From TrEMBL:
Transmembrane segments: none annotated. The lineage of its organism: Bacteria, Bacillati, Cyanobacteriota, Cyanophyceae, Chroococcidiopsidales. One of its GO terms (biological process) is thylakoid membrane organization. Residues 65-79 have a biased composition (Polar residues). This is Thylakoid lumen protein. It comes from Chroococcidiopsis cubana SAG 39.79. Residues 54-79 are annotated as: Disordered.
Length: 108
């Protein structure tokens, strides 16, 4: 290239294209990170609400287990499977033991 003006034009054009590409890549990366952050925040919020719900249900079960559960149930609505009833009672006993242990350890 013999003309310095033409050479300066092409150098300026190349510089503008490169700057444009770099800006485009930076913007794309920033939007990608923002999308990833949003997805992670939503997932953490979902997990948090799930944990809160589980804990609330567990606490509700614990508080209802402490109440008297001896109620008369008609024979027709009683479960037919005796083993399932025994398993449920064992689970309630284990839950009560765990709560009693937690109460004892907190009161010391």
């Amino acid at each position: 290239m013999s003309n310095p003006l033409v050479h300066a034009f092409f150098v300026g054009r190349a510089a503008a294209e490169i700057v444009s590409e770099k800006l485009e890549n930076a913007l794309t990366d920033a939007l990608s990170e923002l999308g990833k952050f949003d997805a992670e925040a939503r997932e953490q919020l979902r997990q948090f609400t799930e944990q809160v719900t589980e804990r609330a249900e567990r606490e509700m079960e614990v508080s209802t287990v402490g109440r008297s559960t001896t109620e008369i149930v008609p024979q027709s609505s009683q479960p037919a499977d005796l083993q399932a009833t025994i398993d449920d009672m064992r689970a309630e006993i284990a839950l009560l033991r765990a709560e009693l242990q937690r109460y004892r350890s907190n009161s010391l």
